[in-house]
Amino acid sequence: MTAGPDRTPLDRAFFDRPVLEVAPDLLGRVLVRRTPDGPIELRLTEVEAYAGPADPGSHAYRGRTERNAVMFGPPGHAYVYFTYGMWHCLNLVCGPEGHASGVLLRAGEVLDGHEWVHQRRPKARNDHELAKGPARLATALGVDRRLDGSDVCGDPDAPLSILTGHPARPEQVLSGPRTGVGGEGATHPWRFWIDGDPSVSPYRAHTPRRRNSTRRQVGT
Questions:
Q1: Which of 73, 97, 102, 215 has its Cα between 20 and 30 A from that of 22?
Q2: Using CA atoms, how far apart are residues 18 and 4, in angstroms rounded to an integer?
Q3: Where does the record place the region Disordered (predicted)?
């Protein structure tokens, strides 16, 4: 019989570390989303690290704005941004306060709350596709800008929290370039995923867009 995931919540000290330590260590952890309908639990299988002012791929590369302000706050909070005029993406702030690094949650396996997730993701062909990709993950969990700044290390009844789960073993973790990131940050191997997990999203290289097209906002 397989043991259930460790239900101990991750504390703030977990997130108060360099982003390249936190990101792979999130794999296998359990994200809990509490909704009015009921709780949803998701095992994290794919993430991307963004290193703030030191990272050209980060939203915080050019400094603090109203949009990215949460990234500059204490670790252990959610940074939620809106992209393409239609999708939300969920990130977790880490590192020391003021540093503005964060981890984009790219994919996961739904463990509980399937009924609520299927209502939000009716076009998913199977359970592996419910949260396969950052926009799908946020949609599946009912995450939007109202959760920007949420403390994931606070009240046990808060909208979001992270449980210890079953951390992925080092030999299970692969890394490579981040999806859709161009320019100087294109080759950083800061995307981490669990090898062979069917919920992991396919890699897509950055595609330059025409000057008059809508600029894509990626990463954190």
A1: 215
A2: 29
A3: 161-182, 197-220
Contact 177, 186 (CB under 8 A): yes
Closest residue by Cα to residue 93 from 65, 118, 74, 115 = 74
List b or e across 38-62, with b for residues whose CB sees 16 or more CB atoms inside 10 angstroms.
Answer: eebbbbbbbbbbbbbbebbbbbbbe
Over range 195-201, report the average pLDDT: 97
Contacts of 214 (CB under 8 A, 6+ apart): 84, 85
Could you count the other beta carbons within 10 Å of the beta carbon of residue 117?
23
Nearest CA to 108 out of 6, 31, 24 is that of: 31
- Record the tokens describing residue 199, joined without a space: 């919920």
**Residue 208 has what pLDDT?**
66
pLDDT, tens digit, 9 for 90 and up, residues 90-143: 999 999 998 899 999 999 999 999 999 999 999 999 999 999 999 999 999 999
Alpha carbons 111 and 88: distance in angstroms, whole number? 21
Which residues are CB-contacts of 171 (< 8 A; sequence separation ≥ 6)? none
Is residue 159 within 8 Å of residue 178, measured between CB atoms?
no
The rounded distance, in Å, linking the Cα atoms of 115 and 102 is: 30
Q: Could you report the per-residue pLDDT of 15-38, keeping only the tens digit for each?
A: 999 999 999 999 999 999 999 989
